[in-house]
């Protein structure tokens, strides 16, 4: 049988070429799909602008979600959910702090407190150094009585 011969539907003994069958199937499928798509587009055009339809649909969904999220049951659920999350976070922080204390590992609060104390000590030292420098400056400004050879001292 040559490649140009086609299968006759009345002759079942003729062998079927799979490539021709596959090509025929996809050609029919694409043709039906394009007819269906064309019919859908024509129906949509009779209803109105697709962007207006989408806009109306999104508005309806937004109103529906807004109404749902304002129900007392939903708000109570969200409140309980947030409370549970904060309680779990507090419990986690407490466990971490207790474990760190038992092990002897410093926490951020400990380091912050140490930093504040060191900063306070540093400020105190700087203030005392400023006071000493001011006193030294005043002493340097006072005239000193020098004792010359042959003059009596003023002491």
Describe the structure in brief:
This protein is an all-alpha fold.
Question: How would you describe what is shown here?
Answer:
This protein is mainly alpha-helical and 155 residues long. Among the domains are: 57 residues, no CATH class; 34 residues. The chain is built from 4 helices and no strands. It is elongated, with a radius of gyration of 47 Å. The termini are far apart. The N terminus is likely disordered.
Count the DSSP helices.
4
Structural class: mainly alpha
- Tally of extended strands? 0
What is the beta-strand fraction?
under 5%
Task: Using the alpha-carbon principal axes, give the shape.
Answer: elongated
- Approximate helicity band: over 70%
Low-confidence stretches: 1-5
The averaged pLDDT comes out at 82
- The helix/strand series, from N terminus to C terminus, equals HHHH
Which short descriptors sum up this protein?
elongated
Question: Helices, strands, pairings?
Answer:
Blueprint: H1 18-47, H2 50-69, H3 72-103, H4 108-141
